[in-house]
Amino acid sequence: GQHRDAQPVGVEAVELYRAAEEAEPGRHRADLALALANLGATLSRLGHHQNAHNVEVEAVELYRAAEETQPGRHRAHLAAARVNLGLTLHRLGREQDAYPVGVEAVEVYRAMNEAEPGRHRAGLATALANLGLTLSLLGHYQDAHNVEVEAVEVYRAMEVTEPGPYRARLADARVTPGATPTARDHHQDPH
To answer: Is the pTM of this model over 0.85?
Structure first.
């Protein structure tokens, strides 16, 4: 119910920001990207993954353009939009396409976390966990394991400095060390 109610509001926000951006090119680009990202998340929650994909691709493109004109200002939003796009691609069964999206999200969050230690750890942990899932689904079990262990380590570090809020994320993390099959542990039936 709540997500269904949000869809028309999200569509209206996109239409308003699109008109504002058309009237003053570049001025409302990031606002339009945010409205698109929010609409994409709503559409995805409603199970409209292809529509979400189309909207999220546009959001990523707009954030990338905004980041080019104002370096550093929209980087966190670009990374978050990449994470959402990667999840939508996963839901569409497009792991090959989700992989580079996930890699870029991790790279952006790592750079931000290095520049501002601790500030973007939650985003980094989420991006790592999602990349680990993608790698596992692609059959790259050792790489998936390594990435997922790193995600758990980041979640654990957050839990130490701020007990409570990240406990559920840590519990939901796709892996605890050793849970993902490594390449040597995994075998496929040759038939």
So the answer is: no
Q: Which of 108, 96, 165, 166 is nearest to 137 (CA)?
A: 96
> pLDDT tens digits, the chain, 191 residues: what are they?
566 676 788 899 999 999 999 999 989 999 999 999 999 999 998 999 999 999 999 999 999 999 999 998 999 999 999 999 999 999 999 999 999 999 999 999 999 999 998 889 999 999 999 999 999 999 999 999 999 999 989 988 888 777 766 666 666 664 444 444 433 333 333 33
Return the CA Rg of the chain. 18
Please list, residue by residue across 30-63, b when 16 or more beta carbons sit within 10 angstroms of its beta carbon and e when fewer do: bbbbbbbbbbbbbbbeeebbebbbebbbbbbebb
